[in-house]
Amino acid sequence: MAVTEAFRFDENADLESNLTKFTTHLGLYDAALSAQLMTLYPVLRDEIYTPSTVWNAMFQAILDAEAAAARQITAPKPAATGATTAAAVPPVAGPTGWFLEGLSIEGFRGINNEGKPLELKFKSDKVNSVSAVNGVGKTSVYDAIRYAISGRLPWLEELPPGDRDGEYYLNRFHPAQTATIKLSLREMVTNQPCEIEVKRDSSGTRTVSASGTWDANAILQSLNREFVLLDGPTFQNFIAAKPQARGRTFAGLLGLSDYSRMRQALAALANTRAFNNHFGAQAHAQAQAHAQKGVNDARDALKRDHLILTGNEWGTMPLADGLAKCFSALEQIGPLRVLCAGKTFREIDVDACIEAVKAAEGGPQRERLGECVRLRQELVTLNVQAPDAERTKQLANVAKNREEAVAKTAGDVILQLYQAGAKALELPEWANASTCPLCDSAVAHDLHSHVATKLSAFTALDEATQAVGLEWNEGGWADLTGLEKLLEPDAAKRPIAALSDTAQKGMLTEAQAKDLAVWLGTLRERAGARDAALEKEQRELEKILPQSSVEVTKKVEAARRMQESLGKLDAAQTDLDREKARAGRVSRLKTFLDRASDDFGAAEAAMSKARLAAVEPVFKTNFAEMSFFGVTPEVVKRANSEDLQIRLQEFHGLANLSPQALLSESYRNAFAIALYLAAASLYGGMPKFIVLDDVTSSFDAGHQLYLVELLRKSFARPANPDGLQVILLSHDTMLEKLFNKHTGSGVWWHQRLEGNPQFAVLPQAGAVNKVRDLTISMLQAGQADFAKEGVRQYLEYRLSDLISKLRIPVPVDVAFNDNKQLAGEFLGAIDSAVKLHKAGGSLILEPAQEAGLNANMATIVGNFTSHWGTGQALAFTAPALLGVMNAIDQYCDCFTFVPNPGDPRKFYKSLSQKV
């Protein structure tokens, strides 16, 4: 059926609907293959197939379709038993989207927390942020979400072999050596909860389970989208990637990752070289050429013997007519009439005919005459005309061409090296075309072009090798082994037979081809001498024997040869028909795969381009809102291509320039962030949350604020009701102050992590008490070295909390300092503020509280801060640190009061105000 309109996907339909539409489209060209391909969609989409398995399955589908057509089975229609009406069953609605409301981690990466998992809560109707200093476990939180969703940490698995031991997934201090991650999800529309638990043991075994009737693997697969987990390297890699790799990543951002994987799979199946190698195109082409030559030779032999038997040329008669005339010629010979009666030409017993002639006009001389005729004709049959002089030269020429192609390559090992190099150059690590992936050194030329040129030499070698094999078969060399065997009794001296297998494989050298040409000349001379001797003997016998006996013998021997030629014709024709039928099936499959790959690729590119058109204005708005004045970004998708080009539409008055070459790291990251956020806002899919890890690390303070405000005001819930739940992870001190400021607005939820990988990581909400309890427990057990880090964290948190609650001013260098050994500076700021208010007569503290401040400060400074801050090597004692922990609490209590009898203590509003 002719199809004129280009195939297009429905942009508003889901993948399954579009694949059904694609199947219908392909069915217009080949229904059987289209139906078979449809059954393979899941393995192609999930990349769990091998091309050979798919090719074999589709080839079998052709055979099955041919068998079904041959049987012409028509299934009888069942008799009508009365109309029944089935009640319509509405489809069960599945999840429409997921929020991440909680995360529990134990024993994974930098989070030990033996028996007390790190618990983080997230709000679906607020912007969420988590802060931690370096080394506490923030990145482990990010990695835990990634591992739970995708089942792997690519950055860890891509490390050098010695550094990517699977045990690095587990916390080295966790005694059970088992990681447990729990995701608390909530379905967006129905508000139904779902908890998914992911475990990994020391052997690397991963187990997944879900609460209720939820399908954990299906949910995790739906959450595994490119935009869900984003960090700085993701943006850097996106900008630096090759256009094709960037286009495939972008397809995932647009919700087209399944389409992209299908496109890649279909392109791999349609790859001509791989396809031909699988189906043995070269060997079968040679077999077909040999079978065709066998048919031609057999037909020529029939025509020669037909002339001897009937005295007439064969002409253009059909085979059956020619054989009928030969049968008639034999039947007219008196002694043979009885032997021909009731038989066809093929059924005539030639040996019986010979005996009949011998009986009628017999004698050993007549028998020898028949033998001479037969031997001479055998020589004619074996001494085929091909190859002639031109074909012998042609064999040497194609062998020479192959040797020249071999000289430009260096064998299969080097081929594999170049193939691996071509794949490596597509990876983001080698985005620079002048860096060699083998030695990691810079080269002066474009490696892509260099490797492509080298691989093309191997392609030329394949073609030259195939040409040698074809010439061997088409030239008739393979048919000379019989002549060689007849004329050379010593098997060790038969070079055609010895080199036949080498030549069939296309590996004959020019020197061997020239030697064979000389040997062929020798064979021709021997054949001529043998024929001359037999001809002489035949003529002597013809002089002795009656003419009738001579002629009858010639005709009977001609009949014998014709029967032999018919057998060869049948065998060669069978081989030829089989090879042609197979070639037709292979060609049918290749044509179908080419069409499937081309049409799917064009449709996927068109849909991607349409979605890009929708994303681009949002992308440009996002970039502009991050306040990069004078720069307008642009993304371009080439027609019918996976490549995604990134450009600068405007750069301070200039146009169409490269962002990689001109933009700073922060601008490049902003380019990618703006594009990712735009795509996520329009084509989010099932995950309704996005986790951003240190995405502002390359930005200055002003642009950090712009990005956070873009997220808060335009992108994230609740300001954007259709937006995503945003979870920000950061170690930036200035950003943490901004997060704390927004927390009071009611639309922001902020948490802080404290701890270390050896013991525990705890969230700020309630973490201070957990840190206090754990520290005191270790001190009571005498573990002073382990507990001192907890003392520091507890002290710094309580002092920081005091400064915040009492609105105590601190120097600028303290406010912006990311060094967390700040206890001394905090104590100094508090002491200065107390003295200032006392001097001004506005201090709200009671005299007992003032005295308590000084006493407890002396304990803190004397027993801990002075040693910690100066890095002294003196060992802390457990009793001393227990005293410090008690002094910290008493110091902070000096700034509290009891509003009413029986009420809990409250902090003063400031150093000069109670409430």
Automatic annotation (TrEMBL):
Gene Ontology terms describing biological process: double-strand break repair
Molecular-function GO term, any one: ATP hydrolysis activity
Record-linked InterPro entries: P-loop_NTPase, Rad50/SbcC_AAA
Ranges for domain Rad50/SbcC-type AAA: 103-246
Protein name, UniProt field: Rad50/SbcC-type AAA domain-containing protein
